[in-house]
Specification:
Strand order of the largest sheet: 2-1-4-5-6-7
Structural class: alpha+beta
Number of helices: 1
Number of strands: 10
Distance between the termini: 86 Å
Order of helices and strands: HEEEEEEEEEE
Length: 183
């Protein structure tokens, strides 16, 4: 009788430890997935931007892009990258205002590629100087960097489709990329 009681308490402890471990695994998996997703997005953006001949920040979507006008802060939801001197060939990264997803497209694409789940900020991209100060369009020097700041929203189970009233985690990712100008 005593041995059975000790065995039952031991099994309850083992089962409780196992369930706790599974819960911790799910929490850790969601955080690791968010980190991996951001790393993939930022590596791809860096690869496109590093060897670009020029880039523009502005307001963009799948069908349109409007660069920030001179005299305004160089902030926007879209970054259009020109790999060469041909301005009709481009790569556009943007935060879609309708579904808040971070997307990438090239000229002529009918559908954009979704790169990251819901992004909290309206303006993801900016030009900054060496001090981290946002630049004004028209006075952006050649040695300015493109700064990317996005907060990815994700549920505690790792899903990116967030329902109203659901608990979410926020993951802030910031980086700055200096394009290598080809002369």
């Amino acid at each position: 009788m005593t041995a059975t009681a000790v065995f039952m308490m031991l099994m309850a402890g083992v089962l409780g430890g196992h369930l706790f471990g599974l819960k911790m695994f799910e929490i850790t998996k969601a955080k690791l997935n968010a980190s991996e997703q951001a790393r993939r997005v930022l590596n791809r953006l860096q690869a496109d931007l590093t060897y670009a001949s020029s880039s523009r920040i502005g307001a963009g979507s799948l069908g349109s892009f409007t660069a920030v006008a001179n005299g305004n802060p160089a902030l926007g939801n879209a970054l259009q990258i020109y790999p060469g001197t041909n301005l009709s060939a481009y790569v556009r990264y943007y935060r879609d205002a309708t579904d808040q997803l971070f997307k990438r497209m090239t000229n002529g694409m009918a559908k954009a590629e979704v790169l990251a789940g819901p992004i909290r900020e309206q303006n993801v991209f900016s030009y900054q100087d060496f001090r981290g100060t946002n630049q004004i369009m028209g006075s952006v020097p050649n040695n300015s960097v493109v700064s990317v700041s996005m907060t990815i929203m994700q549920t505690l189970t790792g899903r990116t489709n967030v329902s109203a009233g659901e608990l979410v985690d926020y993951y802030l990712f910031e980086t700055s990329v200096a394009p290598r100008r080809r002369e």
